[in-house]
Design a protein that fits this description.
With 253 residues, the protein is of the alpha/beta class. The chain contains eight helices and seven strands, in the order βαβαβαβαβαβαααβ. It is 42% helix and 15% strand. The protein has a seven-stranded parallel beta sheet, with helices on both faces.
Amino acid sequence: MNPFDLTGRLAVVTGARRGIGRAMARALAEAGADVIGVSANLEAAGSDVEKDVTAAGRSFEAIQADFADPAAVTELGRDLAGRERPVDILINNAGTIRRTPAAQHSDADWDLVLQVNLTAQFALARAVGARMVERGYGKIVFTASLLSYQGGITVPGYTAAKHGVAGLTKALANEWAPHGVNVNAIAPGYIATDNTQALRDDAQRSEAILARIPAGRWGTADDLGGATVFLASDAAAYVHGTILPVDGGWLGR
């Protein structure tokens, strides 16, 4: 049997409308999984991610949920945990970023980034993970960051949240590994997405970043697909509490 085969599995991907989330959903579908895509502005039908998934021959369901709204996240968790067909794979990828020097970083920006990137991630993992523990099977993959390891510049809220995601990954793995639930995270490097547009538009910053990446290029969202499938599959059955960098070698520099 192919341990990377996800045929028959149901995957939930948050932040699925574009960028890394869309690429993750596509990779999972190509490996055989049916997909529920979640995003604040995800179209009810006809989205790009839906087209990706159905082109791979898998089913797709769209759910709109704003991770900045705690009540919406609670309702999403209740919905997913209460379904007759259980969630096998949860890709906790939704996120946001605010770039402001620390001395000017507002409470509103801090609260928003922590809510979307950390608090909502825990609330959804708690709801879906509890059902996985009851079943004795499940895969949870968070999207961490290089800033789960480093401090970054002008992103104090994002850095704090992504450090929190790394710790949460380990904490949940410690509790749920004995129950057949794998909890891990992927730490993307500098990926060409909307979140990094400001960096790529700054010629000096972009040059400095590229000079440190051994691979010599910005990553693409599709570079995350293989790691996603691996951690969501039985090939990673003995992988627990790991934060897997996909960074072109940045951390090894």
